[in-house]
Write a structure and sequence with these properties.
single chain; about 130 residues; alpha+beta; six-stranded antiparallel β-sheet; 3 helices; about 25% helix
């Protein structure tokens, strides 16, 4: 089973579905998803900062779980985001790459860009890997 098949089989979660995320590429080394701006904005029409974070956490946590493997579970312990541009229409694309893939901790960086390829947000997530409860 490929990484993308694994994600689609496992499901992306109710929040990610509600926000319109579409996973397009998924391996341990690179995970990509898109999300529409429309429906995920703050009152002034900008993509909500929390929406960037949800996209980043969805990608980073799922990538950490793929790395963890069967019988193990990755859970987020830290996340931060720096927003550098505002998206107001179209879609944004998150590209998740590992910074560190350890046995008990992973760190991923997610670069979120707009339709013109301009970086809007940089998210970093740290996940702890543990044995899945029985």
């Amino acid at each position: 089973m490929t990484g993308l098949e694994w994600v689609l089989h496992r499901g992306i979660g109710a929040l990610a579905e509600k926000m319109g995320m579409q996973f397009t590429e998924f391996t341990v080394e690179r995970a990509v998803a898109t999300m529409p701006v429309e429906g995920n904005t703050q009152p002034v029409g900008l993509l909500h900062g929390g929406a960037y974070v949800v996209l980043g956490e969805s990608l980073g946590s799922m990538a950490a779980n793929l790395h963890a493997g069967p019988g193990r579970l990755a859970v987020g312990v830290d996340i931060n985001a720096t927003h550098t541009r505002s998206a107001t229409s179209g879609i944004v694309t998150g590209v998740c790459t590992p910074v560190h893939l350890g046995r008990s901790v992973t760190v991923h960086e997610i670069a979120v860009t707009d339709d013109q390829g301009r970086r809007c947000s940089t998210i970093r997530i740290t996940n702890m890997i543990k044995d899945r409860p029985a």
